[in-house]
Amino acid sequence: MEALPSIITVSQDGKGHYRTVQEAIDAVPLGNTRRTVIRVAAGIYKQPVYVAKTKRFITIAGISPENTVLTWYNTATRIQHHKGEKEIGGGTFGSASTIVEGDDFIAENITFENSSPQGSGQAVAFRVTADRCAFYSCRFLGWQDTLYLHYGKQYLRDCYIEGSVDFIFGNGTAMLEHCHIHCKSQGFITAQSRKSAEETTGFVFLRCVITGNGGREYAYLGRPWGPFGRVIFAFTYMDQCVQLAGWNNWGKPDNEKTASFFEYRCFGPGYCPSKRVKWAKHLGDKEAEQFLLHGFIEQPNKPWLSQRMAFKVPYSA
């Protein structure tokens, strides 16, 4: 059992311990082993945020995602960050408004936004390069490459994610449960980058909702950024924005032989098994079992998720 968490408060009016989220993160000791909860007062915090590898066991908790917003405007070709490119990386990798590289991170009731306008190219709202990270009732806002699940195991519940092109991407092992996925324009929801059949990575969307901006058939469920890309949609509602073909091979027919794109008991006007590409698969009950439980992201002898859930800390004034 972990020790009780320490609490740090952030408020732009000076009534908390710190005025910015980054100042609070910087105050967490290097090599931290005790959960630190950073409670963030309502406000729009306009600055990039970076959680280094040495800053583990951090929770960032807001009042509500609509009222507590972390936002910045980097793109792959224009990065302005309080850390140097040597630390955070360049291109798409370094363009995230918020970057988390410290394991055992939790966020609750926060909006993570990249405010770069449509047409800016790759502009990540949030990149996670860390293991055992969980997100509850968060929003991820952007256009292209909104949420970069780069590495590690992640769990998202009751979150809202919007974008247009490849806006949930990377090679993480992630379960998104009861999440709302919103397609803002023509594009692709996922771009998972598993590189071999031996890798256990992939994205599972469980009991989610996919919506769009009113048009018909303009968004694909995904395309393989890596040749063995793996994505599963289960018990998910798909509105008319979803292309009836479902999936795209990224212009590489060879990807059709290796990608693992699965659906299971989905529904809605965007779900049409008879019109899906032939190389995607509709799972049977037995085949789907491995993707329907939290065991997809945690091993029975290492139950990180249940322990982390004990430290969901609602904001209180």
TrEMBL record:
Documented EC number(s): 3.1.1.11
GO terms for MF: pectinesterase activity
Reaction equations catalysed: [(1->4)-alpha-D-galacturonosyl methyl ester](n) + n H2O = [(1->4)-alpha-D-galacturonosyl](n) + n methanol + n H(+)
Domain Pectinesterase catalytic positions: 8-298
Keywords assigned by UniProt, alphabetized: Aspartyl esterase, Cell wall, Hydrolase, Secreted
Active-site residues (renumbered): 166
Pathway in which this enzyme or protein is active: Glycan metabolism; pectin degradation; 2-dehydro-3-deoxy-D-gluconate from pectin: step 1/5
Cell location: Secreted, Cell wall
InterPro entries: Pectin_lyas_fold, Pectin_lyase_fold/virulence, Pectinesterase_Asp_AS, Pectinesterase_cat
Highest taxon in the source lineage: Eukaryota
Family: Belongs to the pectinesterase family.
Record-given protein name: Pectinesterase
